[in-house]
Amino acid sequence: MRLPPAYTLLGGKNAPDRRNTQQRMCESVDFSTDFDQLWSVMLARQRHDLILEAVSRHGSARVRELSELLSVSDMTIRRDLDALAARHLIHKVHGGATRVGAGSSNEPGFEAKQRRQQGEKERIAAAAADTVAPGSAIGLTAGTTTWTMAKYLLDIENLTVVTNSTSVARMLYTSRRSDLTVVLTGGVRTPSDALVGPIALAALARLNVDVLFMGVHGMDAAIGYSTPNIAEAELNAAFLRSAQRSTVVADHTKWGTRGLAQIAALEVADHVISDKDLPSAAVQAFVDADTELRLV
After folding, report:
1. Which has the closest alpha carbon to 46: 18, 11, 82?
2. How far apart are CA 58 and CA 116, in angstroms?
3. Mean pLDDT to the nearest integer, 109-129
4. What is the CATH classification number for the domain harbouring 42?
5. Hey, which bits of 164-269 come out as E strands?
C-alpha cells in the first residue's frame, strides 16, 4: 500500500522541520500551550486522514499494513481505528477496518475482485494445481482464485472438474481436450459468477469429488470461512460434503474479513494455500484448527 501523493507524513523524508513548525505555532498560540500535546494532536489528525484515504481507496486496510505505512505501532493504529469508528467514518473489523458501506453483505462483482492481489492469486493457483493428480475428479467453487487455477489445469490428463462457476467453465472449455470433462451444476447466477440455488444443490447431492478447491470471501478464527451471499454459502457447504478432501485457496487479505453467511469452521478444511503475507495470528489459528497450511 502506498501513501497517497497528496499527503506527506510528518517526520518523513520531505516533511517540514519540527522545530520550525513549532516556532510558527508559537506565533499564533499562547506561550503556555503544551507544544508536545499539540504536536501529538496534529500527528493523530494526519494519521486519521491517511487511514481514511487508504480505506477509501482499497475498500479495507489491515492494522499491520497501516502500521508499516505510517511507521507507528499496531497499538497506535488500533486507537486510531477506534477513534474513526466512533465517528462512523469506518467499520472496524478483526485485524483492520473496512470502508463504510462495504459491510458483510456487500458482494463485489467478478471483474472487481479479479483485479485484486493478482500476483498472490497466480502463486496460490499454481501451487494448488500442482497437487492435482491425473485421472482425478475435482471440484472448483466460484471465485477469482479458482478461476486463475483453472488455466493451470489444462494440461492435466484425464481430469474431471465439477464447478458452479460459469467463468471457470469457460476457461476450461478453451482446452478442447477429449479427456477433460467439465460438469457445470446449473442454477441461478450471482454477482461473483457463481451458480446457486436448488438446481445446483440437487446436482451436487448426486456427485462426489476427490478434492474440492474452494475460494472464500473471508476467513476468521471465530466464524471460519464466509461469503456475503447466503445461497453461495449453502452451495459451498454442499460442495464440502461432496469431497473426500478440501483445500481453501485464499490470499492474505481474506483473513479477518467476515461475510454475512458462514460456510464452515476453519477446521473443516483439510488444507489451506495462501501467500506469505498471511498474518502470524492467522497461521496460529490454522495450527490450532489442525489445518495443513502452505504459504507461497
Report:
1. 11
2. 9
3. 77
4. 1.10.10.10
5. 180-184, 188-189, 195-196, 209-214, 218-220, 224-227, 243-249, 261-264
How many helices, marked H, and strands, marked E, lie in the chain? 11, 15
pTM of the model: 0.65
Phi-psi region of 254 (alpha: psi -120 to 50; beta: other; left: phi over 0): alpha
Residue with grid cell 499496531, as numbered in its chain: 74
Residue 11 lies in a domain: no
Position 65 pLDDT exceeds 70 = yes
Task: Mark whether 69 and 216 lie in a shared domain.
Answer: no
Q: Which amino acid is at 109?
A: G
95, part of any domain: yes
Q: Is 149 exposed, middle or buried (0-12, 13-18, 19+ CB in 10 A)?
A: buried
3-class secondary structure, 176 = coil
Question: How confident is the model at residue 39, as a pLDDT?
Answer: 53
User: DSSP label at 266?
Assistant: G
User: Residue 4 — pLDDT band, cuts 50, 70, 90?
Assistant: very low
- Structural domain total, the chain: 2
Question: What's the CA gap between 141 and 146, in Å, rounded?
Answer: 7
CATH number of the domain within which 156 lies: 3.40.50.1360
- The residue written with cell numbers 487511514 in the block is 51
Q: Is the pLDDT of residue 103 over 60?
A: no
Q: Are residues 114 and 254 in the same domain?
A: yes
The C-alpha cell at 69 is 505505512
Q: How many CB atoms lie within 10 A of CB 17?
A: 8
Q: What confidence tier does 33 reach under pLDDT thresholds 50, 70, 90?
A: very low
